[in-house]
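Researcher: Watch the backbone:
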Amino acid sequence: MRLSERPAVQIAAPSVPDPDPDHRSIPHAHLSPVRPAGQRRRSEKPSWGYDRPEVGVYLRRRREALGLTQEEVAVAALTTLSSLRKWEAGLRKPSTESLTVWCRALDLPDWTLRKITSLVLNGMDALQVNTLPLIISDDDLDHLEMIASPAYYLSFPHMDVLAANTAARKLAPDLVPADPDSPRPTNVVEWIMTKTARDHIVNWQAVATRTIHMLRVMGPGLVPQQRLDEIFNSCHAQAPKIFTRLFTTELTKAEAEDDSVLVRNPATGTVDLYTCRSLRPMQPLRPYEQLQIVKRNRPAR
């Protein structure tokens, strides 16, 4: 069957049963921003959930990850200590100019900048999602299949796999859309925690940390809490210690923007270097992103 002949894929995730019937899921903790593992109290349990994500939450988390004091950031952001404290606490909103300087002082990765933009614009980054038919049409699938390299349609920022072209199915046979009768969609973050992914991706820790970090930054406020809990608990159940460590890891700007993936060929054992690009269809606007994985034409270092 040609990819374009496959049934239209529903983007909206169906309701699902309790993913943790033994009630061992991680509780919905309202945490202060994630700190390096060595500074976290044992009683703290990470969670993807925030009832009201604010700009100050993300920028305070970034400051703490960099090991900077409020005084140091206030000086770099050309503001007073009192103003910075009120910005971080959400008691006062900075001007556009002050927010720009604040972000530059913290050298924010692109993912966090996009989240900040969404918050400042009151969620406009996601306003169009529910205004279009919630299906992937045959025409969209035809366009995906025309790409020679592995390519996917992913919901954003959930990272549920909505479609995969032939090249993608060959590269990762188990990272494909779930069957229509499946209780839950296939998810990139959940897949990255599987043993298959760990065996398949040579630089797995770097790729997994980037993937988890992106959802941790972008998810709250844009992804329904139930869906975040499903993904979190699935990942935690597969490898609790490893996932907790990755979840609490903050990235440098260079690490966050690194797009390399080293893939081991299961048949030959050779390692190929790929780069990833996430592209957002803009005309016509679509409520998903296209992920392309392209092999570099030079040896992996």
About this structure: The chain has a mean pLDDT of 79. The beta strands are 9-10, 135-136, 151-155, 161-164, 260-264, 271-279, 288-295. Residues 49 and 220 are 6 Å apart (CA to CA).
